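Practice problem 4.
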């Protein structure tokens, strides 16, 4: 018998002349080393002892911000780090056509104002009864079983039901839309071109879906989120049609993948740490204050920025068009900002960038906080003690939005 070397099918980009050899690392954002221990644990190992910026030849070749402070700074400064392209590989990011996430100020500003008006805290508070009913219905269906796959039976249903109701869309369309979202945030392929084709097909799938919905709701008087937005104005005028497509498609993408996966990461941890559940079970004040700590501990987004102009940043030469991955996991896991960062401390005043930062801070953060809070309140009432099933090993996937599957709980 002879040994045969494993062939790595992933394409590697040539190293640009301005990238020092000392900063090159093999880091694949879609297949992190050590991910079997968890996405967040993997990132902590990857950045240990690393400089603020490194460059990887994988995923089309790009920089990675390796410190929490660098991630925050890049988010906050669109004059140096543009949102012109925000997904990796760059070839895929150039196919991404949703707005206003690909805009920089001042073009971005009126679209953001419109979104903020539709998803402000007062508007979200009006939704609490609907959100709570969705949670109660699911938990009461699950509780008598004594077991469930939380990812499949709750996380992939609850925020989706909430969002589809908010948008006035039929729930039966959700699986198709969720597949589009997955193909955009974790695109398939071994080369940048293959990944770009996967993302583009999903992006166009969203556009094809929302086109007739926008046409039907234009000029309407409905209270759903889509009607509100397509009848809003941008600088006093109607929104251009291509921007309508991009804006409504963005809502679907954000509403059908991000909170879904956050909830699964959250529940894996709580199932392994019953003492943390005991601290807040029956103590709504402590739970309400502590929910932000969950978001610090379990960020799921790793998007990117494009270098806006040639510059020196933290001692590294960057060129216009270079891409930089900015994992939101890193600020919250920075031990200098949050001591013992892998521990969940309900009393902590957490510092993080889970919702991004700067002009593109997540517009859905108020709804996400409500969904997490309501989930825990209603779950703890009906399932006060639970654990991972014997032999259960959750399956993690990293990407623009990281995911967790096989979250089998018993009680």
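Answer key:
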């Amino acid at each position: 018998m002879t040994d045969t070397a494993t062939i790595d099918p992933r394409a590697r980009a040539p190293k640009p002349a301005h990238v020092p050899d000392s900063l090159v690392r093999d880091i694949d954002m879609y297949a992190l080393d050590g991910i079997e221990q968890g996405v967040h644990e993997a990132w902590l190992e990857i950045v240990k002892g690393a400089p603020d910026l490194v460059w990887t030849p994988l995923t089309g070749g790009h920089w990675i911000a390796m410190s929490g402070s660098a991630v925050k700074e890049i988010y906050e400064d669109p004059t140096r780090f543009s949102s012109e392209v925000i997904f990796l590989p760059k070839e895929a990011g150039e196919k991404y056509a949703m707005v206003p996430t690909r805009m920089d100020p001042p073009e971005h500003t009126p679209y953001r104002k419109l979104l903020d008006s539709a998803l402000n805290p007062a508007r979200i508070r009006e939704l609490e009864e609907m959100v709570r009913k969705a949670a109660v219905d699911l938990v009461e269906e699950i509780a008598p079983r004594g077991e469930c796959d939380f990812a499949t039976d709750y996380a992939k249903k609850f925020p989706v039901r909430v969002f589809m109701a908010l948008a006035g869309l039929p729930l039966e369309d959700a699986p198709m839309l969720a597949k589009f979202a997955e193909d955009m945030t974790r695109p398939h392929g071994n080369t940048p071109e293959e990944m770009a084709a996967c993302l583009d097909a999903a992006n166009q799938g969203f556009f094809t879906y929302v086109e007739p919905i926008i046409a039907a709701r234009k000029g309407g008087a409905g209270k759903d989120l889509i009607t509100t937005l397509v009848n809003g104005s941008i600088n006093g005028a109607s929104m251009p049609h291509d921007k309508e497509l991009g804006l409504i498609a963005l809502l679907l993408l954000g509403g059908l993948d991000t909170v879904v996966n956050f909830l699964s990461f959250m529940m894996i941890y709580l199932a392994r740490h019953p003492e943390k559940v005991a601290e807040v079970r029956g103590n709504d004040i402590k739970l309400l204050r502590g929910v932000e700590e969950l978001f610090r501990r379990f960020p799921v987004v790793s998007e990117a920025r494009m270098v806006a102009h040639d510059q020196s940043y933290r001692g590294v030469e960057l060129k216009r068009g270079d891409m930089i991955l900015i994992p939101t996991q890193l600020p919250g896991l920075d031990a200098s900002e949050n001591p013992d960062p892998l521990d969940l401390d309900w009393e902590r005043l957490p510092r993080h960038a889970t919702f991004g930062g700067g002009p593109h801070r997540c517009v859905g953060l108020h709804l996400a906080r409500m969904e997490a809070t309501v989930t825990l309140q209603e779950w703890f009432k009906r399932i006060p003690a639970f654990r991972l099933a014997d032999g259960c090993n959750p399956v993690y996937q990293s990407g623009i939005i990281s995911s967790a599957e096989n979250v089998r709980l018993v009680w």
